[in-house]
Design a protein that fits this description.
The complex is a heterodimer of chains A (about 290) and B (about 250).
Chain A (H helix, E strand, L loop, with lengths): L1 H11 L1 H26 L3 H22 L3 H25 L4 H23 L2 H9 L7 H30 L1 H7 L2 H40 L6 H26 L3 H19 L5 H5 L8
Helix pairs in contact in A: 1-2, 2-3, 2-7, 2-9, 2-10, 3-4, 3-5, 3-9, 4-5, 4-9, 6-9, 7-8, 7-9, 9-10, 9-11, 10-11
Chain B lengths: L4 E10 L2 E11 L4 E5 L6 H9 L6 E5 L8 E4 L13 H6 L3 H4 L7 H13 L15 H15 L3 E5 L7 H16 L3 E5 L3 H7 L2 E6 L1 E7 H4 L2 H12 L14
Parallel strand pairs in B: 3-7, 3-8, 5-6, 6-7
Antiparallel strand pairs in B: 1-2, 1-4, 8-9
Helix pairs in contact in B: 4-5, 5-6
Classes of the chains: A mainly alpha (about 290), B alpha/beta (about 250).
């Protein structure tokens, strides 16, 4: 009975299977990046980068209409430009990275809104902002899988310097010249995953699947491996449950998935064993040493 | 013997204001030198100049036979994110970066060396602890263990004993003596004059400019200390371009 409810929509409809597959791929690819964003206290950077991608996607849309390639490339270019410019300004001037990032992403966002509102219709804006997870075609799924493979591979190669850059950036700078390379490659990973995510979930909701599971995982695990595993599981379950909600109650699927991830975060916040609220309210006896 | 480090008319500073002014001296290879002086005397700035995070306004630091990889540096305030989920053993293993780089494998032998370094700073048994759970002294011991693995020919320590209890300090001083005994050059910024007198044969006294540099007994005089204080207090007032600059 319960299995019918869960299985039937995916067994009956190809678009549901595609949607689920796309979301699972994004979960595996984007959430590890989200975990590192959280550990580096850059959770809001993901949000800023998502806004920065908009004019690129809009520009791609202007050039070629609602098509995969130009919008992806445009988004990548816009995101990387903002990441590199803000990082560059932070390194050569007195302005800190958060302030310069804010400046550049706001410029980029304004440009994006301007382009979309003068040349596109509201439907297009909705597509870029909220994605079309229920209409993922083969080309988009191939793109998502490629981005996921690339992202996981880069993360594996970058893992050691990235951990050092997070834990002790000064030390990494003192023993190697890889600090800046690590930082910018990591930002490139953020952009890459957001661009992948926006086809399915839209630019804004793509940040949700990156950050919310990571934030929730913080209440279940301590180690980096544990955090990443927990975040991926939470993201996958949120995708599945969110899609089912959207199917049975005719809800827009992107926000439904992110809201389920939000509920997972709320549950973790209360019941999570690592610093959750319930653990605080019910103190256990302390140890001898 | 050629010196490990030579400061040639070195001026270091921030935004044109010098913090180290026309410094001209040498650090002998294999020496154990304390850098002393009042707050604002340019001691930390000098170390930043040596590791190259601060470019000289004038003059230069020359290294003799040392390369940049031969220098290990313990900053006064480290940027370490204590909440980051990393264990003592992982943090100490970072000291092997020169040997393993970003992709090299941590061999069985290397793990053994990490374990030896950890136990030689008295942290045996705490290997798996996350760094966030360490006390200030234990953290400093961890950083010394990492320095041990860096196997550097020149070790720079910036106020390594601030907020450290006597027992920890004694253990860490023993590590410093061991380094020096192995022929490494150690340069440490210190405030505790008694520690300097007891453990450091050479002393460099700074007050933006060099006050004195030589055997500790001859440098740490009441006269020099009085002069250093006066020189630092004389730094106030409106800025004007230094007349000693070459350009």
């Amino acid at each position: 009975m319960i299995w019918d409810i869960i299985i039937a929509p995916f067994a009956d409809f190809g678009f549901m299977r595609r949607a689920l597959f796309g979301c699972i791929v994004i979960s595996i690819s984007a959430t590890p990046v989200g975990v590192f964003l959280m550990l580096r206290r850059m959770s809001l950077t993901g949000d800023a980068m998502a806004h920065a991608i908009l004019p690129g996607a809009a520009m791609g849309y202007l050039v070629a209409g609602l098509s995969l390639g130009p919008m992806t490339i445009g988004g990548l270019i816009a995101g990387m430009t903002v990441a590199l410019l803000s990082g560059f300004v932070a390194r050569v001037t007195a302005l800190r990275e958060d302030a310069s990032l804010a400046a550049f992403y706001l410029i980029s966002l304004a440009l994006g809104v301007l382009i979309v509102s003068t040349r596109g219709s509201n439907v297009d804006l909705m597509h870029v902002l909220f994605g079309t997870v229920l209409a993922l075609d083969d080309a988009t799924l191939v793109l998502l899988c490629s981005i996921a493979s690339l992202s996981i591979m880069i993360l594996a190669v970058l893992f050691r310097p990235l951990v050092m850059e997070c834990a002790d950036p000064q030390f990494l700078r003192s023993v190697s010249g890889l600090s800046a390379v690590t930082h910018f490659t990591f930002l490139a990973l953020v952009v890459l995953n957001l661009v992948g995510g926006f086809h399915a979930l839209g630019t804004l909701m793509a940040v949700g699947i990156m950050i919310l599971p990571a934030a929730a995982a913080g209440f279940w695990a301590i180690s980096i491996g544990g955090l990443i595993s927990a975040a991926i599981v939470i993201a996958m379950l949120s995708s599945l449950i969110g899609l089912l909600f959207s199917y049975y109650y005719s809800l827009p699927s992107g926000p439904a998935i992110i809201l389920v991830a939000g509920i997972a975060y709320g549950v973790s916040l209360i019941f999570g064993p690592k610093g959750g609220l319930a653990g605080r309210a019910l103190p256990r006896p302390h140890f001898e040493s | 013997m050629s010196p490990a480090l030579a400061f040639q008319n070195l001026t270091l500073g921030y935004d044109r204001h010098p913090a180290v002014h026309h410094l001209q001296t040498e650090i002998a290879d294999g020496s154990l030198t304390a850098i002393v002086g009042p707050n604002g005397a340019g001691k930390s700035t000098l170390l930043k100049g040596v590791i190259g995070t601060l470019a000289p306004l004038e003059g230069e630091v020359s290294f003799g036979s040392l390369n940049r990889e031969d220098i290990a540096y313990l900053p006064q305030q480290s940027d370490i994110d204590r909440s980051f989920p990393i264990s003592v053993v992982d943090l100490v293993s970072m000291g092997l970066w020169r040997e393993i780089g970003p992709f090299g494998q941590l061999t069985h032998r290397m793990r053994h060396r990490v374990a030896t370094a950890i136990s030689s700073v008295g942290l045996k048994g705490l290997e798996a602890r996350p760094i966030g759970s360490l006390s200030g002294g234990q953290m400093q011991r961890t950083l010394f263990a990492r320095l041990l693995l860096q196997d550097a020919r020149l070790v720079l320590l910036d106020e390594p004993f601030t907020a450290i209890d006597a027992r920890t300090m004694a253990d860490l001083i023993a590590v410093i003596h061991r380094w020096n005994g192995e022929g490494r050059t150690v340069l440490a910024v210190l405030h505790d004059i008694e520690v300097v007198r007891e453990h450091f044969p050479q002393t460099m006294m700074l007050a933006r400019e060099l006050v004195d540099h030589g055997p500790t007994k001859t440098v740490l005089t009441a006269e020099n200390q009085f002069r250093a204080r006066q020189m630092c207090e004389a730094c106030a007032g409106p800025p004007h371009v230094c007349g000693r600059s070459a350009a």
